[in-house]
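Lab notebook, design round three. We kept the backbone fixed and only want residue identities now. Task for the bench partner: fill in a sequence for the structure below.
Input structure tokens:
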């Protein structure tokens, strides 16, 4: 019998723009206020575009946490205190020194504000400097050019494509492109992301 994996310790990650706090059903109403936009779920394997579907989305994430496979967060804009999205560590394999960062969505009004960049910086720092990971993975629908550009902009390296890899919410099959950042690359990636955030604070891109 396989040994039961212990859940990752809940943690709050906080920066200048964003606070990532452990996801719970208490976030349901706030997530519904910003997250029922069908466009947010266009490329996803799930579609949380109704209150019922959003509740199921949260419950599934919490079940994965209890099974030791994920650590989900609510994404909160610090200035307003408003919940603006969600993200998580998933496919947790600490015995192999790896996690995936994904399941990320941010309400359209809060995109391109620096919130997602800082969230990724906080999560990468936790993965490499607290969890001791050797590798952090990302993946994207092969047709989702915006997501693919955003992952590359973090400093991740494209590794390859898994063909006909997953079923998306509309029932079609998707090719999935995988990316990674290694612990040896983390110091340079961290400097790069910190510089991006400094430019954002100064009014740059």
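Proposed sequence:
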């Amino acid at each position: 019998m396989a040994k039961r994996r212990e859940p990752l310790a809940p943690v709050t990650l906080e920066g200048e723009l964003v606070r990532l706090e452990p996801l719970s059903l208490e976030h349901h109403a706030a997530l519904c206020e910003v997250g029922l936009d069908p466009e947010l779920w266009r490329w996803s394997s799930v579609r949380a575009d109704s209150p019922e579907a959003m509740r199921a989305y949260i419950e599934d994430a919490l079940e994965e946490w209890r099974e030791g496979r994920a650590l989900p967060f609510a994404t909160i804009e610090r200035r307003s205190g408003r919940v603006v999205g969600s993200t998580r560590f998933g496919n947790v394999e600490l015995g192999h020194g790896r996690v995936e960062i994904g399941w990320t969505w941010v309400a359209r009004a809060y995109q391109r504000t620096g919130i997602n960049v800082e969230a990724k910086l906080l999560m990468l720092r936790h993965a490499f400097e607290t969890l001791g990971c050797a590798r952090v993975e990302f993946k994207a629908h092969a047709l989702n050019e915006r997501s693919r550009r955003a992952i590359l902009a973090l400093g991740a390296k494209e590794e390859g494509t898994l063909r006909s890899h997953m079923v998306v919410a509309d029932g079609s099959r998707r090719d999935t492109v995988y990316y990674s950042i290694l612990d040896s690359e983390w110091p340079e990636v961290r400097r790069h992301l910190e510089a991006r955030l400094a430019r954002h604070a100064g009014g740059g891109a």
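Keep this in mind before ordering anything: The longest strand covers residues 82-93.
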